[in-house]
Structures are given as C-alpha cells and as structure tokens.
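Marked as duplicate of an earlier ticket. Keeping the data here for the record.
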Amino acid sequence: MTKQRAIRSCLVIVALSAGIAKAEEPWQEDRDQVARFELFNECKPMSVRISSLDEDATNIGLNRDSLHAALESRLRSAKLYGMSFDWFFVVPALVLRANVSSSAFTVALEYHKGVCHTATGECGSAPTWRIASFGSHGDDAGLIRSAVVEHMDQFLVEYLRVNQEACDSGPTVH
C-alpha cells in the first residue's frame, strides 16, 4: 500500500468514526431524556414500601423489617429517605416486591413518582423505573437481601446521576 493510500484509508476511517459518533448522539440524548423522565424529582426524599411476604419467605428467615432496613439505610446515606407509608399513593416511593416459592425467589425494585396524563390532566402515582432478578436461595435469606442491596445500589447510581445538580445544591423544601 502506498503512503498516499494509507493516508486516505486513515481519513476514511476517521470520517466514518465521526459519522458514527454523530449518529449516536441523538440516541444518547433520547436515553438521557428517558432517564430524566424515569428518575428526576429534584432530589426529594422518598418513602419505602415493601409488599407482604409469603410463608416460604418467612420460613427461610426473610422478613419485611430486614428488607426495609437495607433500603432505608442506603436512602439515609444518600440523604433521600422520607417517611415510610403503607398507603399506595404517597410519592415518590421505592416499592420492593420479594417472592419466594420453594427454592426460588424473585425480587423487583420499582421507583414510583407522580405523573400526569397530558391529554386529561389527570395525575397519579406510577412506576417509572424498575429492576428485577430471580434465582435460587438455598434456604439462605441473605442471598435475597444481597439481591435487594445490589438493586438498591444500582437505583442510587442512576438516580443520583439524573438528579446530581439538584442533590448537589442541597436539600429541597417539602
């Protein structure tokens, strides 16, 4: 390959790379807008709700208090903990659903916030962000609590990224 051809090839690669990068920008912008919709709330504290646990969960030592403590401690560390309510309509809120059946479990963590329908103006609470997993617990409630903690950590990373400016400016007045 001649030197001139090599230079042209490099320029083509650079041009194609720039085109690919430009093509990805709108996608990234859309992704940021979706994340903002899902998680932005001006860094307001949130409540915690945990669904009731079935008999299989209590048989392996899983209880609502230990799950609540795991979520609350992480929210307190991030200065995001509000009061916990059993009422469904209190938002924003983290809702944890943990199900145990025989040797298997599922865990789902949802972020609920207030949303309004643009056509009707009707407002209410809706889940806007969710993460879930499943696995085998081997009669160890700690494995399920670990899954909850991992989900909570992922939520906080994404939430704090989206709300960084509001969180950095200090607590909001409620």
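See parent ticket for discussion. The longest helix spans residues 3-39.
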